[in-house]
Design a protein that fits this description.
Order of helices and strands of chain B: HEHEHEEHHHHEEE
Number of strands of chain B: 7
Shape of chain B: elongated
Shape of chain A: flat
Largest sheet of chain B: 6 strands, mixed
Number of strands of chain A: 14
Strand content of chain A: 25-35%
Order of helices and strands of chain A: EEEHEEEEHHEEHEEHEEEH
Oligomer: heterodimer
Structural class of chain B: alpha/beta
Strand order of the largest sheet of chain B: 1-2-3-4-7-6
Number of helices of chain B: 7
Helix content of chain A: 25-40%
Structural class of chain A: alpha+beta
Radius of gyration of chain B: 28 Å
Largest interface: A-B, 77 and 62 residues
């Protein structure tokens, strides 16, 4: 068992605690809370137990993942060969994150929850990725992109950008399952075509009704689904697409300086997400072949998915997790293309101020024009 | 077409024998009420004729009613064009300006037109007043209550002529300042909402993807395709038309 790091986190605000000789208690400089040593040790003992349990469950899932509901997972392996000799793993007792990195990189804090205490562990039984897209943008580019993300947002509170710890942005390789497969299906529609003409003093509209049928299939390659429960799916969807021309066979040579998350969502758990996206794409493609009509309504749709190979890949993401007014805000940037996403808080004061600034003069101008007419 | 005009004249002559002392007719003349479609009884015709004559003399503006089986037998174009043609052919109207208001019904396709000519008629029954006038008799004509509809027409024309004579012709009411302000406020609110919602939409950049278009390998392979016609539905609506005429006069037409 590795040695425990003795930096404790404040339960109220997550800042580091320090021991005060005066009071004999652990104190937080940020929020001023103080705790008995025994109280904090008991709290962390509980969290370590939860982290160890999470690691056991992940290892259990790895052994079960080879038989995953019809997907071809034959390519997946946990044999790292000689590359595994230089790899390290850390687990976070606060959020349960499992992070791997090469021997030259040290994990000083968890990129997901900011916990400064991460526990080194044994690197074994970890699935080796098939592919990786290396980071192409550095931390400076990520910081610049985040600053640009704040620009031109009239309703962003000023205090948010002031208090945002922008330099704490971290680069992490996020694990993804990539699904190959084929979607096959058919759909029925009711469509109409109208034309209008005049006869005497009447305007007549004639509407022709049609019953439409389409069937077809579409192949898909490497549909990505985020394999980390700690990285929200909608954020990972939003930073797509990654340019797969830069996809390389995995090598630990790409890891120095970055952490890589281990997957904790299995192939079977992820496939529903991939299935839904493939189904929607086929339905839209079939619908797009119905043209020359004024209206078209889908009455029936059936899609079947043929499952192909599954690949495991690490994709580069710069992330910043920040707290403001009691709410968490996550920003994510595609480490290859630079696409930055993250919902921003609203200042309702600024919203209504802008509303009044526009509404009053427009109302005055329209009233004046109507009075003159 | 010439046969129909002669037919019209025959009707006039028969009615003239019944109700008006016989006199030599040198030029073709129409009465105030010309019922070529024979939708009125003799008594109804007499009463309407008397009322129309009195009002025409009182206000110096002729009030006329013409019913025909099919206006297309009297001229080309729309019913308003035929009404214009008949108005000028029979030299209808009072005074040098030929002031007059003519209501013409064509029974074949159930068309009507209100034709006005001359300054007095145009002032009393302008565009807005024509809309209101048509509303007074259309509900009667829809139910084939011809005499009732014609009485409504004459009564409303009398009120319009009276108002015009008093210097307050029927016109579309002007919007009050309050109404202008209300409209201005609504427009201001809508524009401000649009601007602010656009600004608000910029605050959100995270969305779940519903499709996988970027990961499609190759094109869609269509294995089945069928477009089958089933049936046709037909709807129609009546167009009410307002028009100005080249030789003066204006009209409003529609269906009843």
């Amino acid at each position: 068992m590795a040695n425990q790091v003795t930096n404790y986190q404040c339960p109220a605000c997550t800042d580091p605690l320090h021991f005060s000789g005066e009071t004999g208690k652990l104190q937080c400089d940020y929020c001023g809370s103080s705790y008995e040593v025994a109280e904090i040790e008991a709290l962390y003992a509980e969290k370590e137990q939860a982290a160890a349990q999470a690691q056991q469950e992940t290892e259990k899932k790895q052994t079960e993942s080879s038989a995953s509901g019809g997907w071809d997972t034959s390519g997946l392996t946990d044999d790292w060969g000689t590359e595994g000799e230089g790899m390290k793993v850390y687990s976070c007792p606060s959020c349960g994150a499992e992070l791997i990195c090469d021997a030259t990189t040290a994990a000083t804090s968890c990129p997901y929850c900011g916990n400064p205490t991460v526990v080194p562990g044994q690197f074994s039984g970890t699935l080796k990725p098939d592919y990786v897209i290396p980071f192409q943008l550095d931390k400076n580019a990520a910081v610049a992109a985040l600053k640009a993300h704040y620009q031109g947002k009239p309703f962003l509170p000023k205090s948010f950008t002031r208090e945002n710890h922008i330099q704490e942005i971290k680069g992490i390789y996020v694990p993804f399952w990539m699904f190959d497969g084929q979607a096959e299906g058919d759909a029925a529609y009711e469509a109409t075509r109208s034309h209008t003409f005049r006869t005497g003093n009447e305007e007549v509209t004639e509407t022709e009704h049609f019953h439409i049928y389409r069937a077809g299939n579409l192949a898909f390659e490497k549909v990505p689904v985020d394999a980390s429960s700690k990285m929200p799916d909608d954020h990972m969807d939003s930073i797509e697409p990654f340019d797969y021309r830069a996809l390389k066979p995995f090598s630990s040579a790409y890891l120095p300086g970055f952490l890589a998350d281990k997957y904790d969502v299995t192939v079977e758990e992820s496939r529903q997400r991939a299935d839904a996206r493939c189904q929607e794409t086929l339905e839209r493609a079939l619908r797009n072949t119905v043209d020359g009509y004024h209206t078209c309504v889908t009455t029936q749709s059936n899609v079947m998915l043929r499952r192909g190979k599954v690949h495991y890949a690490l994709l580069p993401v710069w992330t910043l997790n920040t707290k403001w007014n009691g709410k968490n805000f996550l920003f994510a940037m595609n480490g290859q293309t630079g696409k930055m996403v993250g919902d921003l808080p609203m200042s309702w004061g600024r919203f209504w101020g802008r509303f009044a600034t526009v509404a009053v003069p427009v109302a005055a101008v329209v009233t004046a024009i109507l009075s003159l007419l | 077409m010439k046969k129909k005009w002669m037919g019209l004249l025959m009707v006039l002559m028969v009615l003239a024998v019944l109700a008006i002392p016989v006199q030599a007719v040198e030029t073709a003349q129409l009465d105030r009420v010309t019922d070529a479609a024979a939708i009125l009884s003799v008594e109804e015709w007499q009463e309407l004729e008397e009322k129309a004559e009195n009002l025409s003399q009182q206000y110096g503006c002729g009030l006329y009613i013409i019913t025909v089986d099919d206006f297309q037998e009297y001229g080309d174009g729309e019913i308003a064009d035929v009404a214009d043609l008949l108005y000028h052919y029979y030299e209808l109207g009072e005074g040098t300006e030929q002031n007059g208001i003519l209501l013409m019904l064509s029974m074949a396709e159930r068309d009507y037109t209100i034709f006005t000519y001359g300054a007095i008629a145009e002032e009393a029954v302008g565009s807005y007043a024509k809309d209101l006038l048509s509303e007074t008799f259309l509900d009667d004509f829809v139910k084939d209550h011809w005499a009732d509809g014609f009485w409504d027409y004459l009564d409303t024309c009398e009120q319009d002529l009276l108002q015009a004579e008093a210097g307050t012709p029927v016109t579309k009411p002007e919007r009050s300042m309050g109404a202008n302000l209300g409209i201005g406020c609504v427009v201001g609110i809508v524009v401000a909402l649009i601007v602010c919602m656009i600004g608000r939409s910029k605050m959100k950049s995270v969305y779940k993807k519903a499709e996988a278009n970027t990961y499609v390998a190759g094109d869609l392979v269509l294995t089945g395709r069928q477009d089958q016609y089933t049936h046709t539905t037909r709807t129609s609506r009546i167009i009410e038309k307002e028009s100005s005429h080249a030789d003066g006069g204006s009209s409003k037409s529609g269906k009843f």
